[in-house]
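User: Can you fold this complex?
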Amino acid sequence: MISLHNVSRWYGQIIGLNDVTCDIGPGVTALLGMNGAGKSTMLRLITGQLRPTTGDLRVFGLDPFANPEVYKRLGYCPEIDNFYEHRTGRQFVYMLGRYAGFGSKEARERTEQVLELVGMKDRADKKIAGYSKGMRQRIKLAQAMIHDPEIILLDEPLNGLDPVGRREYMGLLHNLALQGKTILVSSHILFEVEQMTSSILLLNRGRLLATGDLRVIRELIDKHPHKIRLQTSEPRRWAEKIVAMPFVLSVQVDRDGLELQTREPNSFYDSLVPLTVKEGLPLTGFSSPDNNLESIFRYLVND
Amino acid sequence: MGAYVFQNALSEYLRPKRVVIWVLVAICVFAAAKLFANVSPNMSAGDKYSMLSSLLLFRLLPLASAIFSSGVLSQEIEQKTIVYLLTRPVPRPQFLIFRLLASVVAVIVVSIMAALAISFAIYGPAALSNNLLSRDIVALAVGAMAYGSLFVLISLLINRAMIVSLLFAFAWETSVPSMPGSIYLLSISSYLTAIAQRPSAGSERGNPLKALASSLGGNTLTADQGWAVIIGITLFCAVFGAWWFTRSEYLPREDAE
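Assistant: Here's the predicted assembly.
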């Protein structure tokens, strides 16, 4: 569906995307990277808003730049939060339905269908200026789906959505993927992506660092000692128990808790419950400083 | 598809809030024309209309064009809503031309409002039987096309197109037609004056007010020459603009910099 071959894009002296080669097919694929990694540049190239400086980019086998044939089969939900604020959500979606080539009646019917799908049917007569961030995200998704495209590109679509909204949104994407659609979602939040798909493209500073299954990336991460921080009022008692565990490499105690390193984080997490319940060790919280994109990039680049 | 692009853009340009401003402009024009008519009792109605039309109407036309037509794309780019429109299956030339046409219609509407205001101020209830009015309306319509396509082209080529267009409308179009020699040929207004068949400057030397008014359109161009040049400018700017728009990238401003 989407094919990039040695694609680079420069903005003057700055490189936005650097020699990226990949193919994207049906299902949900996550485009993962920190801010400035090149995710939006890649989406703008695929949506034909930009031309590659070098390399070859094809969507449905066609050059997407300003190509109506591609836009008939492609829906795009941009990251920008800009709208025709004086219009209502319904008017906005209808307008873009008409721009997609539908007549008045069909555009109206499709508008109602997609508004229903994104949960905005009852709230779509309010002016967009009065919408919450979550409502704006839903309206953006509605306009991207109105022409039932085969490819849907979503740039940071979960920003601003509440937990319930996120779950509904992810459910919707899952259903679209089951219909055989190609969905490319950009995000900078690993946790978010893990809930959506296991298929990822990992971008860092314009370069494609890794592609494929997120579990493979996870394994790469797990080759490195994994840091876990426990918050407790009795860090020394915890430390006594933890150092005895075979998969724990080191423990560092401080006033508010302790930080340990392990190569088997899952085994460690399994042992947390028995320690708190059976041994009665107090635990107010735990976190993993390594469970973020920055750490993943650090590991991958070091490899 | 093109019809909807046109209709949607026109409804945007002629939103009630915008129209109210232009109605107020027309009321001001009417008041100014009425005042002038009262302080010049010795001039004929035709001369008064002709002078006011040259001084007000053909100054308002490029101003309205600069406002409406330079916003055909630049407004969408500045508001960052261009991304929704350019990722739709509308061929770019079609998109541009139909939006340009919508802006031209909007300019014609507000210009005719001003023309009627002057005509009513001078002729009263007989305003519509003023034969200069119909000639003016034709000149305003072709002028809106020429200015519109020029300003759209400017907005495609440079940032801050509105400022450049307003400078062109106010400074260039006001001063160049009155310049000596053949410099007046560089002004669109000179050709519109020829199409509207205004009197030449040479025949009005005895009367300073008439000379002022006619000097703004005082040239030796014939109506046919005016038509040929205006059509040429319109076609060139529209075709070149459509070609340019088809091959250019349009991004939200901070990304482009």
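The mean pLDDT of chain B is 86. The two ends of chain B are 33 Å apart (CA to CA).
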